[in-house]
Input
Amino acid sequence: MKPQGKAGERFRTDLKDVIARYGKQTSPAHKRFFWSLILAGAALRAWLVWQPITHDEAAAYMAFATQDIRGLLSDYSLPGNHIFHTLLSKWSTGLFGSNVVGLRLPAFVAGVAVLPVFYLLVRSLFNRYIALMALAMAAGFPPLAELSAMAHGYSLSWLFLMLSFVLARHFVRENNGFTVILMGVAGALAMWSQPTAMFGMIMVYLWTLFSMLTKYDRSLAERLALLGAGLLVFLLVSVLLYLPVVIDHGADQLFRHASEGERNWRTFTAGYPDKVLELWMWIADPVGWVVAVLGFIGLFQATYVSAKYRTLLIALALGAIPLSLVLADAGDPWQWSYTVFFFMIGGAIGLFYLLKSIQDKLLPRLGKRTRTNWAALVLFLGFSIPGSTVVRNRVNHLPEAAACAQELVSGMHPIDRLCMDAFWEAPVAFELRGRGVDAASLTGRPEHGGLLFIVWNDQKGATPDLAIMRCDLHIRDFETPNVVRDWPRMEIFAARSR
Output
């Protein structure tokens, strides 16, 4: 019988009960396998964290994280400012230095932390066997590892979205007002990490509503009132967090950013097929289309056999499709990355029933634990081993930026100056920052006899002349530039000031 104390006290009691109950109901072997998958998923993400910087990461960091807190919280001049992530990366690089690990640490931690929360959600909805296989897929799925190792807010939004779902599950069962408040706060933090988390949060609230409508009658009015209060908390906290942006840019900038061009029904219908193909390729490329098709077959099987899963999918579709139509925006694949977790639940359900059928008809001695552990191992290895190299190679990492920064630090003198083309400016500036050099202090015209170091990208159609003009200088004021270093995507020239 549940204690009838305050909502917060009941929540803490329920949390202790869940920990104790799951601890008793879970075998030591299952616990070991669970933690092995978490550690293996963390290792996969850590390997990707050490890859060189990308242009988008460097541009977002140099544009926003280098500002003071007021500027960081209010500047939404580019949609790459995932504000909560930017704030955490500012603190992280302040503690651990301006390097790729310090920059990516918040996304990495969130990308690992979401795994046990996802397991808890699936286990609370279905059972520990389905949860373990779903965890294996999430831990080893290369696209999720890819975004968990890049300095963007997507993995943070997943974490808070999953926390919201776990809290929603608790609210449906226990009708706890404290839970619904936490659910709203977690949802607002998901939004603050990535505005497109709105799609996922609509899914959470719709699923909560559907679950209550199908389970309760006499207490439904009270539960709906609490859900409405929690939704109000979500909206109020979200508005409060984004208030600096709204004051400076307006609310429309969050969902219809000026830099993304015109959005209307014509552009939406013209670009929608390409967006769907991009999403499919983002999901299927690392694991192969055969595996992806088999996964979706499992999803359809799960939809057929599980009413709970059908409710999840209905909420997912209603959370995504109508708002996408209203905004006339199909989004990029990363925007829909949260849906992968729910597709994996379907795949795990389908696989669970397939293995059960094999046991019943072919291998009666194949117990649940054995078949689940082997399936989870095959899923993790089958996803991670072939796919990790694919996601590493498809991301445009820029090792030249670090090499260039080292060359400049060792080769420049106080009278020299630096001029870079638009593509390399942010990545090289980030790497210089990690070496204690402010790239902005190196701009301008060098002293007489000093060198102007020119960093440019010949693949982007730039020339040393154009790079110099971009820096408000003129080529006639310098001697003929000489090549200092030459890489496939970058060249460094030096021109002496006349």
Summary: Residues 399-496 form one domain. The beta strands are 417-420, 451-456, 482-487, 490-496.
